[in-house]
């Protein structure tokens, strides 16, 4: 056998299959949703007990999950784990539009698998644990009576649109060819941690339709009735950022 067929192909010359990319998006979204919602369900609501991590712990859990997922799966699929990110990157010219729907379906599947597993784990908890989790909304996003701090619809619309746009700008900036290599996952994870600290009192923190849909399914009718806000406005913010990104990142000036 000739060396041209027997020698291993250098990693730099290989490209992941589209199926591998979708599997990476499913797994990465599972990690993100399970990390956040699992921490919030099992460790952030223990009434200050020894194992309680509180709201800050939930914020850090999301940041850690994103950093880990981006390093692990980013080289395969780009590490979106969020329909808004996928659409924002497509609008910015970083992803073919034809890939967006399969990516989004994979992300929704990953998120729903995560909340389903969390629910099954909750059923094995102390008497009434699962019922309490679902009756309180299963860490779903909401406004008005469903807002942790009693914030209304307008507040949720504004914060989800603006924060998602900022998030997309951060992603585009730290993954730009002019950015320092290797630090993007850290910057992205820390950005989400910071945002969640502000978002949780307002609407429980979304900027990710896959996360919002996955929890609303188990939150029940009241939460499902409000999930449209956390689908439409993160996507709106992402598209605004994506379409306007060339004004910031890709303008070329002559000297």
From TrEMBL:
Its main location: membrane. One of its GO terms (molecular function) is channel activity. It is found in: Membrane. GO terms for cellular component: membrane. It is a multi-pass membrane protein. Keywords: Membrane, Transmembrane, Transmembrane helix, Transport. Pfam families: MIP. The chain crosses the membrane at residues 27-46, 53-74, 80-97, 104-122, 151-172, 179-202, 227-249. Belongs to the MIP/aquaporin (TC 1.A.8) family. PANTHER family: AQUAPORIN NIP1-1-RELATED (PTHR45724:SF13), AQUAPORIN NIP2-1 (PTHR45724). This is Aquaporin Z.
